[in-house]
Each structure stands twice: as structure tokens, then as C-alpha cells.
């Protein structure tokens, strides 16, 4: 079988025209309509040689663009010698086929482009499996169009005849077999990961989520000193990375970085990336990172919330982090945002500004789930004592007269209580709830240390 994705996705270094059909009710400015798509295609290595935007209440059912604009596009293709047309819209299989026939040029829609970027950037075994699965599911109903591509590429062999139903049937069967195989492999990986995630459950975890290019990985590095891949490209990170984060005067928790979100994420990709976001689902707290210098910032916040909601992650308790404050040109815009999202924390992962406030906000939030306990146990109860060492903040330790028993007073996350290895000879008393530290009450050195 011809490998559809390989042929389809060779968009690199191609001369492309970008096209978008926007609805006036979407309130997208005409000159900003293609900004994000430009970012996406540049990430994919495409050269932009022309752009075309049409205002239309609804995309044309057969060709997305209206008749007149389609004609304009055909002229433009000839004029700028384009090899590729990239649509910001998602096209149905028949729309793609029709436009391709009309213009005689390869068409890539938004989903295909994102899939292409994901495919190039996927590093881990799991990310690769997920992307391949998403691609196959996306291309299955589009096989006919792919064959048309191939014929053109191969110099018109059999041109006009089409692939024939028999060929398509064979392709579909092969494709379905591969899909089943990928699904099986993925569920193996998932089972393995569930085990590692649950190994970690004794640590408090915080997860970074947010729109692609918001600065999640940069923030991760700034907070943990970890060496995570950063790039001024969309989708630099395609799988979850977890690092230790030492919260000042508090202790060690885990911080995990995740794949970025984007509007109209291909449907299949949302489904297959669900598992990559498992860490976010299990996290005690989410930090929703936002590029506050981006004019589309509010759209980005909404998109991320929507996707989180779709995959069943509660976004309402996330701490909103306005990143890149150093890059904001119009400070009054930032002020308006801050008024609107009054609990958001403003930071710059690059200059370090605000990181202390962010740590403090995280501590406050996590601390609201803490209790002070007193545990009295034989000194030989090593398992329990090392649990307390590792996962709580010990306030005092007192030994009995004969040194056979110890009483430990400690501050611990409430959710760890059921996990403690208490024996019959152990006594546990809950002494009080730990209250969040009100802002401004924190001593100077705490607020200024990162
Ligand atoms: N000026 C400025 N640039 C920043 C800041 N934080 C991140 N950046 C830049 O923004 C770009 C994207 O940063 P990343 O950390 O890769 O973004 P990300 O959210 O992890 O992106 P994906 O992994 O693609 O989802 C890089 O060029 C960073 O250097 C900041 O606070 N200020
Ligand atoms: Mg990243």
C-alpha cells in the first residue's frame, strides 16, 4: 500500500498560500486571522508566498470558499507558483477533494497541518504511536484524495482513472489492521504508565497546562532548574515530563510539563492525547500558563479550558499564570486582564519576575489541604517513620524514657493520611487544619527567595 501519510505530509520547504474563511460573528480581525496559522506553518517549515481571507457566514459546503474567491485562489496559485494551499479551516473529505480538483494543487487543512507538526516533533515511543494513530484515523475517509495526489506526483500514471474501489478496499483493510495494532500497543503503554503514575501518588504534584508556546517548558526550567526542550515553535513539547520542584521553606513536590493546546485540535488527536494528559488529571493542582503578550490571550484561555473540560479535567481550580509579562507592550491591556482574572499571578519565566509570588500561591493552595498530626509509635516502625520523613514536614520529635517509642508532630497533606502504614501499636491524633498563609504575612526572605 502506498504510505498516504508520507506523501501527504511532505510539506517542508514548500511554497504555500494560506487561506482562511472567517465568519463575521467570530470577531476575528481580518489581518489577524492568519497569524496563528503562519506560526503553525513556519513550525512545519513551509514558505508562505500568499494569503487569502474570506469573510463568510458559513463556509461553502462544497468548496469552503465561495465561487468568486475560489477563482481568485486559482489565479493566485498560478501567479505566485504555489505548490501547496493550507486552509486554516478544517475541510470535509469532499471539500478537500473538490478544491484540489479545481486548483490542481495539494491541499492541507488545519488538522493535517497540526498532525504533521505532531508527527515531526513526537519523540517518545508513546507520542509516536499516538500521532500515527491519529493520522490514520484522520486519513481513512480521505484515502481517495490521497490517491489523486500520488498520481500527480508519479507523473500522471493512471491519471483520471482514480484508484478503483478494489484498491481502496485493500488500503482500508491494511489501514484498519495497523489501527488495531497501534491501539493494542498504546493500551500496553498506558497500563505501564498507570503503574508509574500511581507510584508517584505519594508526592504532591503540580501540572503545567496551557496553549502552545505559552512558555510552560520555560517556566518549568525556571522553577526547577530542569533542562526541558524549549523552542519558539508551536508544539515543542509533545509528552509529559516530570521534575522535582523545591518549594522554598516547604519541601519537594513534583512539577510536570505537558503538551500545548491549540484551537480546533484535531478530534482524534484530543482523544489520543488524553492519556498523555494523565499526569494533569492526577495532579493536585494545575497551573494554567498563558502568554499574556499574545493579542489572542483570552481566546487561548477559553480554548484550553474547553479542551480540559472535554477530556474530563477540572479546570476551575487551576491557578492562572500570566507569563511573558516582560514582553507585554501595552501595560494597560495587562491591567485589564488582571482585573478580569483577579486571582491570576503575573510572571516572566525569562526575567524571573513574579516566580516567588507563584511559589507562594502554590504553597497557599496546597497548604489548604494540610493537617497537623501527632503520631506515637515504636521506634522500630521504620516504614511509617520514613513515610513521615519523606512526605511531611516534621515539627518535633520526642522519645519515651526508655527510647523504645517516639512521638512525632508533623504537617502532612490530608490526602496522605489514609496511606500511612499504621500498626496496632501506633496512635495517631489529628491536631488541627493548616490554614493557608494569607498574603503579606509571609516573612520578607520567603517572598524574595526563589
Ligand atoms: N519574552 C519572554 N519569552 C518567553 C517567556 N517564557 C517563554 N518565552 C519564550 O516563548 C517561547 C516558547 O516557550 P516554551 O517554553 O517552549 O513554550 P511551551 O508552552 O512549552 O510550548 P509548547 O511545548 O509548544 O506547548 C520560547 O521562545 C521561550 O523562550 C517569558 O517569560 N518572556
Ligand atoms: Mg513545551
From TrEMBL:
Q: Which InterPro entries match?
A: G_HFLX_dom, GTP-bd, GTP-bd_M, GTPase_HflX, GTPase_HflX_N, GTPase_HflX_N_sf, HflX_C, P-loop_NTPase
Q: Where does the protein end up?
A: Cytoplasm
Q: Which residues bind Mg(2+)?
A: 217, 237
- Which keywords are on file for this protein? Coiled coil, Cytoplasm, GTP-binding, Magnesium, Metal-binding, Nucleotide-binding
Low complexity: compositionally biased ranges: 435-444
The record, for Pfam families, names: GTP-bdg_M, GTP-bdg_N, HflX_C, MMR_HSR1
Positions binding GTP in this chain are 210-217, 235-239, 257-260, 323-326
Q: Which residues form a coiled coil?
A: 165-199
Q: Residues annotated as region Disordered? A: 431-450
| Cofactors, names only | Mg(2+)
Where in this chain does the record put each Hflx-type G domain? 204-370
The Swiss-Prot or TrEMBL record annotates one GO molecular function as: GTPase activity
List the SUPFAM superfamilies hit by this protein, alphabetically.
P-loop containing nucleoside triphosphate hydrolases (SSF52540)
Q: How does it assemble?
A: Monomer. Associates with the 50S ribosomal subunit.
The similarity comment for this entry is: Belongs to the TRAFAC class OBG-HflX-like GTPase superfamily. HflX GTPase family.
Q: What is its biological role?
A: GTPase that associates with the 50S ribosomal subunit and may have a role during protein synthesis or ribosome biogenesis.
What is the designated name of this protein? Answer: GTPase HflX
Give the species.
Gimesia fumaroli
Taxonomic placement: Bacteria, Pseudomonadati, Planctomycetota, Planctomycetia, Planctomycetales
Gene symbol of the encoding locus: hflX
Amino acid at each position: 500500500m502506498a504510505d498516504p501519510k508520507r506523501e501527504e505530509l511532505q510539506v517542508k520547504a514548500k511554497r504555500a498560500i494560506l487561506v482562511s474563511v472567517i465568519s463575521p460573528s467570530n470577531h476575528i480581525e481580518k489581518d489577524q486571522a492568519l497569524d496563528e496559522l503562519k506560526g503553525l506553518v513556519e513550525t512545519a517549515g513551509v514558505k508562505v508566498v500568499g494569503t487569502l481571507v474570506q469573510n463568510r457566514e458559513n463556509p461553502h459546503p462544497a468548496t469552503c470558499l465561495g465561487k468568486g474567491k475560489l477563482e481568485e485562489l486559482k489565479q493566485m496559485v498560478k501567479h505566485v507558483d504555489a505548490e501547496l494551499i493550507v486552509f486554516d479551516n478544517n475541510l470535509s473529505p469532499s471539500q478537500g477533494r473538490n478544491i484540489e480538483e479545481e486548483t490542481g494543487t495539494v491541499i492541507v487543512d488545519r488538522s493535517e497541518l497540526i498532525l504533521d507538526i505532531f508527527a515531526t516533533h513526537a519523540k517518545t515511543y508513546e507520542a509516536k504511536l499516538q500521532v500515527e494513530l491519529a493520522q490514520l484515523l484522520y486519513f481513512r475517509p480521505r484515502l481517495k484524495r490521497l490517491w489523486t495526489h500520488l498520481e500527480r506526483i508519479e507523473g500522471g500514471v493512471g491519471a483520471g482513472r482514480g484508484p478503483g474501489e478494489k484498491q481502496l478496499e485493500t488500503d482500508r483493510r491494511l489501514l484498519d489492521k495497523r489501527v488495531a495494532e497501534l491501539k493494542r500497543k498504546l493500551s500496553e503503554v498506558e497500563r505501564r504508565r498507570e503503574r508509574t503514575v500511581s507510584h508517584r501518588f505519594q508526592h504532591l504534584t503540580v501540572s503545567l497546562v496551557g496553549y502552545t508556546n505559552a512558555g510552560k517548558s520555560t517556566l518549568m526550567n525556571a522553577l526547577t532548574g530542569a533542562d526541558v526542550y524549549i523552542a519558539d515553535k508551536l508544539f515543542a513539547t509533545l509528552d509529559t515530563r516530570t521534575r522535582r520542584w523545591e518549594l522554598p521553606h516547604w519541601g519537594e513536590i513534583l512539577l510536570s510539563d505537558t503538551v500545548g493546546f491549540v484551537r480546533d485540535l484535531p478530534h482524534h488527536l484530543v482523544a489520543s492525547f488524553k492519556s498523555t494528559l494523565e499526569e494533569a488529571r492526577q495532579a493536585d493542582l494545575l497551573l494554567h500558563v498563558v502568554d499574556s503578550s499574545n493579542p489572542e490571550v483570552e481566546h487561548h484561555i477559553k480554548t484550553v479550558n474547553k479542551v480540559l473540560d472535554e477530556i474530563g479535567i477540572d479546570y476551575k481550580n487551576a491557578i492562572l499564570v500570566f507569563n511573558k509579562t516582560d514582553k507585554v507592550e501595552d501595560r494597560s491591556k495587562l491591567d485589564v486582564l488582571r482585573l478580569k482574572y483577579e486571582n491570576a499571578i503575573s510572571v516572566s519565566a525569562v526575567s524571573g519576575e513574579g516566580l516567588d509570588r507563584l511559589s507562594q500561591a502554590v504553597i497557599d493552595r496546597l497548604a489548604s489541604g494540610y493537617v497537623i498530626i501527632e503520631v506515637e509509635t515504636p521506634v522500630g516502625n521504620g516504614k511509617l517513620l520514613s513515610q513521615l520523613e519523606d512526605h511531611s514536614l516534621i515539627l518535633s520529635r520526642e522519645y519515651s524514657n526508655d527510647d523504645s517509642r517516639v512521638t512525632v508532630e508533623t504537617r502532612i497533606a490530608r490526602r496522605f493520611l489514609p496511606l500511612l502504614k499504621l500498626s496496632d501499636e501506633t496512635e495517631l491524633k489529628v491536631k488541627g487544619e493548616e490554614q493557608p498563609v494569607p498574603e503579606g504575612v509571609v516573612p520578607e526572605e520567603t517572598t524574595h527567595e526563589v
